[in-house]
Amino acid sequence: MTISENTVKWIRSLHLSKHREQHQCFIVEGPKIVGELILSDMPVHGIYGLRPWLEEHSGILEERGIPYGEVTEVQLGRISCLTTPNRVLAVAKMLPPRHIPLEEAGKGLIIVLDSIRDPGNMGTLLRLADWFGVKCLVASHDSVELYNPKVIQASMGSFLRLSLVFSELKGFLAALHDRVLIYGAMINGESIWDTPLRKDAVLVIGNESRGISPDLLPMIHHAVAIPSFSGDQSIPPDSLNAPVAAAIICAEIMRQNR
Questions:
Q1: Both 73 and 116 in a single domain?
Q2: Which residues, at least 6 apart from 218, have a Cβ–Cβ distance to it below 8 Å?
Q3: Residues 137 and 36 in one domain
Q4: Cα(first)–Cα(last) distance of the chain, in Å?
């Protein structure tokens, strides 16, 4: 039996942040990410899929006690946040806000995200952090929310494997300043190729257009940059976007600390 019109309307309401916050639920889409969600410890409110997908996966859903319902292609199109819906959609329950124990800082790389507003960038940052084995990211309160559907989609399941903590960054960095090395990705920093980089440190990535906030700059011990190899320096290229810059710096940090 296909889901009711009331269920369709409720899932559609989760496209908006205020309703996600009200119901403490969010949307996860596509076979890959939904498949990882099912096998994770994150609580699932329900799975809504096309009949062929449900026939293939009903066993694991029943084994794990996850409610599910059939949707038509028209219904899937109405509840989906994607331009082209993909077979199955899940509604998961938000976890309680996470807090990073300050005593854990300095035991691996922490990425700090200053005012990251673009959902695609945030999701990609989660994905690359997962790739490089970074277990915790700390974001400013004005960054895009974790449960934005575009963040979840761009993360490709990485949101299930790491912590994204929202914090007041100036206080957070100030608490670490005297005992953990803090790098800042900045256009005028020292080349990462010429800088000894530690893994047990903090890396601050700034806003997509403005960079790192001025009030955070005194907290940074070492500004680092990715040199440009553009041939025409009379018209230098624009800076790299946040995920690309973070990926290159993380790769160099991990290379130096193999």
A1: no
A2: none
A3: no
A4: 54
